[in-house]
Predict the 3D structure of the following.
Amino acid sequence: MRSFLFDQPAYRVIFGTGAFGRLREEVERLGGTRVLIVCTEAEVELAQDAAIKLGDLAVGIFDDAVMHHPVETIQAARDCARDVAADCCVTIGGGTTTGTGKLIALESGIPVVAIPTTYAGSEMTPIYGMTEGSVKKTGRDRKVLPRVVIYDPELTLSLPPEVSGPSGINALAHSIEGLYAHDTNPITMLMAEESIRALARSLPVVVRDPVNIDGRSDALYGAWLAGVVLGSVAMGLHHKLCHTLGGTFNLPHAEVHTVILPHAVAYNRDFASDAMRRAAAALGVSDTAQGVYDLAASLGTKTSLAALGMPRTGLDRAADLAVQNVYPNPRPLERGAIRELLEHAYTGNRPQAGRSTTKDARNTKKT
Ligand code: NAD
């Protein structure tokens, strides 16, 4: 076994049906007495439920969180926290909401209790992001990590199939890239494989039957593990491309991940054979790129950048931006091949099968 570093923050995670009921107790445990609740406009009902649970500890709701975190919105959220003299922040909603709470914590240092209701995984990472103009910048700081995360599958029953599918594939992307990360380690790989298994078996269930509580628990469990993977090891080309496409062309986050993932996997396939074998085995397929594409398509997600409204004229710019900075990725960053990857993603065709993938998958199943 090769040497590795495993440097994990101590997470406090409350997982399970009814876990939302523990909110007040967890805030009190952190010493919170004036809580600002953060959500998006569409998540206000969830925030009001949180306010009821918090009772006199709740001092305000900021319901203006916006995807990709424009700098003006973040300033408004920070002003709001200051105006109500918040000493604790509760976020309830998807990654947009969680990220807003993290950016409040970055400035003020107040603790965040996150209650995620999608599969984005932001609550498990020290990564924050903000968009100024059309440029999305990210940073890492353990100060933004939520101090407590409450996962209650009941809160995800209302997620419509068109959100559950892409959001689940977004989580899958963290785990697949975590398997071939240059700084991966055996523990993170275990979590990544378990996460891929859980997501592959549960996403078809929750898309077909959104109120299936066992499927919802399984999907949230897979998403939690994927979030830990995302926060622990360096992501590669797939995440960089999605980041660029989302920020520069204002495309929806989870949907971009869903379209790009099969093609990014195909790009790296011959340069990360162990990771591909593990991912294929966890997915129960012979080829990871095709398996991801088929899973996403079976969930009814959009499979092309064209369908997401990406202008064809933006493909060259996206390819240029992807190779602007050097970062670790199994296959060297080749501008021409990345442009080709983007072309496939634009049209949304199914990736070709890789070399001897069936044989590899058969070998993996035997072990
Ligand atoms: P999102 O937060 O915008 O949520 C997607 C949709 O789900 C929204 O329409 C929302 O209203 C809806 N929704 C959320 N909870 C619901 C519920 N319980 N019932 C019904 N509908 C519900 O999108 P997302 O994909 O969760 O997060 C994307 C954002 O998170 C991006 O800005 C991305 O950059 C960020 N992100 C950051 C990290 C990180 O580590 N920093 C990781 C992943 C994502």
Notes: Residues 40, 42-43, 67-68, 93-97, 99, 117-118, 120-122, 125, 127-129, 155-156, 158-159, 163, 167, 170, 230, 253-254 surround nicotinamide-adenine-dinucleotide (CB under 6 Å).
